[in-house]
Amino acid sequence: MGIAIISGVVASLQSKDNAHIIPKWESHTPGTSTPTADSPDPSLPSFFIATVSRQESAKKLRHTFGLLGGLGASVQVLVGENLAAVQRSDIVILCCKPHQAQTILGENGMKEALDGKLLISILAGVTISQLTSWVLPTTKVVRAMPNTPCRIREGMTVVSPLPTLSNSEETELDRSIILKIFSSIGRCRFLEEKHFDACTALSGSGPAFACIFLEAMADGGVMMGLPRAEALELAAQTLQGAARMALQVGAHPAQIKDSVTTPGGCTIAGLLAMEDGKIRSTIARAIQIATEHASQLGQPTKK
Ligand SMILES: NC(=O)C1=CN([C@@H]2O[C@H](COP(=O)(O)OP(=O)(O)OC[C@H]3O[C@@H](n4cnc5c(N)ncnc54)[C@H](OP(=O)(O)O)[C@@H]3O)[C@@H](O)[C@H]2O)C=CC1
Ligand SMILES: O=C(O)[C@@H]1CCC=N1
Questions:
Q1: Does ligand 2 lie within 6 Å of residue 130's CB atom?
Q2: How far apart are CA 161 and CA 109, in angstroms?
Q3: What number is the ipTM of this complex?
């Protein structure tokens, strides 16, 4: 997921659309971001540090970020040097497995390195109350729940509200930095932490659930004789089109469905077959069960 976030942000910095906001500055992540003295916009990182624990992962990351070219060169990959990376950073995005957080944040000197900095955790199930108990009270802790489409800048990220500080200007700046980072790789919205397990299931895990539906639609096409590649293209573009109608036009899903459904036609025949298979409750229950599971991740009894 860390790769998806950096890849998306780097792609956004390379995009012509964003030429007006490409800052002349240096920064670090996953990291972090630090503007140089003459930076015109202190709100978007352009230099990143990615940290991993294994050489094998570092090789993979260097290959991936090398392929990004141009600004990809501004991603530095470090192995086993979390403390050094955090010391050199203003913003840290924690992207390890939920059960690893306490150990990583508990490393000698880490609390001091995080003093006064913004710590964004994307970990499923690990609460703000747990995170704040592992750092100094001066570290500004937020949770973010992104998803893998961030990699192609079509992500959905939910962010928890920033802690209240006496300096409201600082909070506003942090808020704008967070929004710029995650809006550069898709949609971003703030939501109360109490909704995070549901968001983890719905949008965090969602790409996997959506791909089951996508694959099943394509399988149906293949069953009826369509070549596999074309069946997948038709299914993916159809799902994208329907989703964009809901997002861009603001159409209710039922309205989109009704507009496709000719009386006595083939759509209603297919819809009834889906309802016979309890497709709605199956999908909704999957979100319910994933939410319940998410709430246990990073808790003492779970790995
Ligand atoms: N995958 C997804 O779609 C989403 C995941 N998340 C959350 O993101 C987090 C990561 O998930 P995911 O990306 O799937 O998991 P991965 O296992 O793919 O990534 C975990 C990363 O953490 C690194 N890491 C592990 N230990 C250390 C350490 N001690 N120091 C530095 N780096 C370390 C790993 O590198 P190495 O292998 O070298 O140790 C690896 O690059 C989880 O907490 C998950 O809940 C949130 C939203 C969506
Ligand atoms: O499966 C998981 O636990 C993570 C969290 C959301 C998506 N992947």
A1: no
A2: 27
A3: 0.98
Q: Is 205 in the pocket of ligand 2 (CB under 6 A)?
A: yes
Probe ligand 2: pick from 96, 158, 200, 291, max atoms within 8 Å of CB?
A: 200
Q: How far is CA 144 from CA 124, 189, 255, in A?
A: 9, 10, 32
Residue with tokens 């050094």: 84
Which of 58, 93, 85, 67 has its CA nearest to residue 14?
67
pLDDT at 67: 76
> Which residue of 94, 96, 102, 295 sits with most ligand 1 atoms within 8 Å of its CB, as the best mutation to test the pocket?
96
Q: Which one-letter amino acid corresponds to residue 139?
A: T
204 lines ligand 2 (CB under 6 A): yes
Quote the pTM value: 0.90
Cβ within 8 Å of residue 104, ≥6 positions away: 82, 94, 96, 110
Question: Which residue's alpha carbon is nearest to atom 2 within ligand 2?
Answer: 205
**Using a 6 Å cutoff on CB, does residue 204 contact ligand 1?**
yes
6 and 75 in contact (C-beta within 8 Å)?
yes
DSSP state of 247: I
Confidence of residue 166 (pLDDT cuts 50, 70, 90): confident
| C-beta of 123 in contact with ligand 1 (< 6 A) | yes
CA–CA dist 122, 145 (Å, integer): 5
The model's pLDDT over 69-115, given as tens digits with 9 standing for 90+, comes to 665 558 999 999 999 999 999 999 999 999 999 999 999 999 999 99
Specify the ligand 1 atom closest to the Cα of 57. 38
- Is 147 labelled a binding residue? no
